[in-house]
Amino acid sequence: MTVGIIIGIVVVVLILWLISMYNNFVKLRNLCDNAWAQIDVQLQRRIDLIPNLVETVKGYASHESGTFQAVTEARAAVANAKTPEEKMAADNALTGTLKTLFAVAEAYPELKANTNFQELQTELSNTEDKISYMRQSFNDVVMKYNNALQVFPANIFAGMFGFQPRQSFDAVAGAETAPKVQF
Fold first, then answer.
1. What is the 3-state secondary structure (H, E, C) of 115-127?
2. Per-residue pLDDT for 94 more than 90?
3. Euclidean distance between CA atoms 104 and 118, whole angstroms
4. Which residues contact 168 (CB under 8 A, 6 or more apart)?
5. CA distance 130 to 42
6. Whole-angstrom Cα distance, residue 137 to residue 65?
7. Contact assessment for residue 99 and residue 93, using Cβ atoms and an 8 Å cutoff
8. Which of 2, 47, 91, 160 sits most deeply, having the most CB atoms within 10 A of its CB?
9. Average pLDDT of the chain?
């Protein structure tokens, strides 16, 4: 009788522990999804700002059509990307083309003095700051989630429950090199 009660208690405790572990995985996965959604919102904000910025620069530098085309294509790639991994890659490409666009703008002092351009540049800069913050937040949550999946004994059950590790948002290739600034 007492052996049966002890076995029953152990089974109940084990079941409660598994439920708790599963619920923790779900919560962390949902935090990852939410953190990605926040990045997605800021990426959408940025791609909404870009056409206005491009049109403003076009008015001053219409002969830079290759740059405008590259920005437009990179913007479309971000908008059309389906998975977080595709969006990460497309966003990195867009960041590079935006640098080129701003390099073009640097050659036109009257453009840099244009109020509309300055406001758009400020909005884009603020959005870039938000994207950077959201990337950090996303990577922190992904690290917590991946750690929860990989520690023993949770790693044994994570695969059985169908939980897979997530990829963090990596820096753009070459980001470790400081840009050269000349006055």
1. HHHHHHHHHHHHH
2. no
3. 14
4. 138, 139, 142, 143
5. 7
6. 36
7. no
8. 91
9. 83
Can you give the pLDDT at residue 173? 54
Tell me if 102 sits within 8 A of 55, measured CB to CB: no
Residue 101: pLDDT over 50: yes
Give the distance from CA 81 to its chain's centroid.
Answer: 12
Which two tokens mark 140? Answer: 């922190």
CA distance 61 to 68: 10
Question: What is the token pair recorded at 150?
Answer: 């990989």
Query: Residue 82 CB: number of other CB atoms within 10 A?
Result: 7
Tell me how many degrees the CA angle 128-41-74 measures, rounded to the nearest 5.
Answer: 65
Q: Tell me how far apart the alpha carbons of residues 64 and 179 are, in angstroms, rounded to a whole number.
A: 22
Contact by Cβ (8 Å): 167, 145: no
- pLDDT tens, residue by residue, 104-153: 777 777 776 777 778 888 888 888 888 888 889 999 999 999 999 999 98
Considering the chain, what percentage of its residues have pLDDT values greater than 70? 91
